[in-house]
Design goal:
The chain is of the alpha/beta class. Helices cover 34% and strands 20% of the residues. The strands form 4 sheets. Strands 4, 5, 6, 12, 13, 14 and 15 form a 7-stranded mixed sheet that branches. A 5-stranded parallel sheet has the order 11-7-8-10-17, with helices on both faces. The longest helix has 16 residues. The mean pLDDT is 94.
Length: 418
């Protein structure tokens, strides 16, 4: 019996398990449907604890961490909440949290890399990122040896650190431009022979990997929450939480109501907030001035079938817009209350929760899951030396020959691996 099948949400047709798009051309995400209807955790390491609801036929044994969920006392008390659960993604050994990149993007990279291994695909995987996703894929590829071409905005290069001594399988290219420019260049590169696109929101491995945040939170707390808070850029994490919640609903042991998605974006560059609320808060200079520019994506999967709009409507959710002052205050509040540092993006989620409490959108007795999408980097630096990934090439987004220059550099670096 097959572990899972993959179907188009629009036409319902079953597709090859490694497909990214409907072969009929439908503007829809594909979704995995698992044979196991109840979630039974395994004794495998890291994210593979949720192997039965991950679209892989094997695991990468080394290097994977997972979400650690615990019930908050201090932050909950500060906000007047009785049932607040924190889903922590990062490094916090005192809590047995060992995501060594300090970002929940690890939950995407390991299932994605495992699927490439299953296909025996040796092509160069192309990843565009504003920092966290790139760091996660660099970590996974340094373990598996899969050749990886990272395309990131030049101003994001400081986020590209690693704990590995040997990163020969990683080529880091920086773009003089923003995240959208990096995405555009990566898309052109991925269409060339010898390269492959990791798929973004269309990749079921990425979504179901991120969905394990909800799985961990519900298994730990024994019930689906009333509300789920997360900061988002593309919104794929929100989609993932929704899909995982539907599976848990079908499981039948954790409640009968979907959690309300409460998503946060960072002003002044909040496209999803603009689309959801029919207002324009996206400045022409975006992503400048953001508390964390990893939360900016010019073309999020909003209206696509199975996308952010559907997820918000299905759960009765909403999106908050957070300014820098609110995010800074929320970060200070969390770190003082819980005793661990968090990434700026996670601070936007905390600020969204603060807004919701003040607005009366959540009640004191409501069960709430707060996804801390990244944390513990300062704690990690106490135990490990962070090594900056070297930049292999810098190109201008306006350079007509940028694509050719990157291909030449990648082939130069990866010739022995291909």
């Amino acid at each position: 019996m097959n572990k899972y099948s993959v179907k188009c949400l629009l036409c319902g047709e079953v597709h090859d398990p490694y497909s990214l798009n409907c072969k009929k051309g439908d503007d829809s995400l594909l979704r995995a449907h698992y044979t196991a209807k109840q979630l039974i955790p395994t004794d495998m390491p890291g994210i593979w604890r949720y192997y039965n609801w991950l679209p892989t036929e094997g695991i990468i044994e080394e290097g994977s961490g997972r979400t650690v969920t615990y019930k908050s006392e201090s932050l909950a008390s500060a906000l007047g909440l009785d049932d607040l659960w924190i889903a922590f993604n990062g490094y916090w050994p005192e809590k047995d949290a060992y995501i060594m990149t300090c970002t929940f993007k690890d939950l995407e990279s390991f299932p994605t890399m495992q699927r490439l291994r299953e296909q025996e695909d040796k092509r160069i995987i192309v990843v565009a990122s504003a920092g966290n996703t790139a760091r996660a894929f660099a970590h996974a590829c340094s373990i598996t040896g899969q050749p990886l071409l990272l395309v990131v905005p030049k101003d994001s290069a400081h986020r590209l650190w690693t704990l590995h001594d040997d990163n020969h399988s990683v080529c880091l290219v920086t773009v003089e431009g923003d995240y959208f420019d990096a995405i555009s260049l990566a898309g052109k590169l991925a269409s060339r022979e010898g390269f492959v696109n990791e798929g973004g929101a269309k990749n079921i491995a990425r979504r179901d990997g991120m969905g394990t945040v909800m799985l961990d939170a519900v298994l730990t707390s024994n019930k689906l929450p009333d509300h789920y808070f997360q900061a988002v850029g593309s919104g794929t994490g929100g989609i993932s939480a929704w899909e995982a919640s539907m599976r848990l609903l079908e499981d039948g042991r954790f409640g009968d109501t979907l959690p309300k998605l409460q998503l946060g974006q960072s002003l002044p560059c909040a496209p999803l907030y603009s689309l959801w609320n029919a207002v324009d808060v996206v400045d022409a200079e975006c992503p400048e001035g953001m508390y964390d520019d990893v939360l900016f994506n010019r073309k999020p999967p909003f209206a696509v079938k199975g996308g952010v709009k559907d997820a918000l409507e299905a759960t009765g959710g909403t999106i908050y817009a957070v300014n820098n002052k609110e995010a800074s205050a929320a970060q200070e509040l969390f770190e003082r209350s819980e005793g661990i540092d968090i990434n700026p993006a996670a601070a936007v989620a905390v600020a969204s929760l603060v807004q919701a409490v003040k607005a009366g959108n959540v009640k004191s007795a409501d069960k709430i899951v707060l996804n801390i999408t990244g944390g513990g980097q300062k704690r990690l630096m106490q135990d490990y030396e962070l090594k900056q990934l070297p930049v292999s090439l810098t190109v201008s987004a306006k350079d007509e020959d940028a694509e050719a220059k990157v291909v030449e550099k990648a082939m130069e670096l990866f010739g022995a691996l291909l």
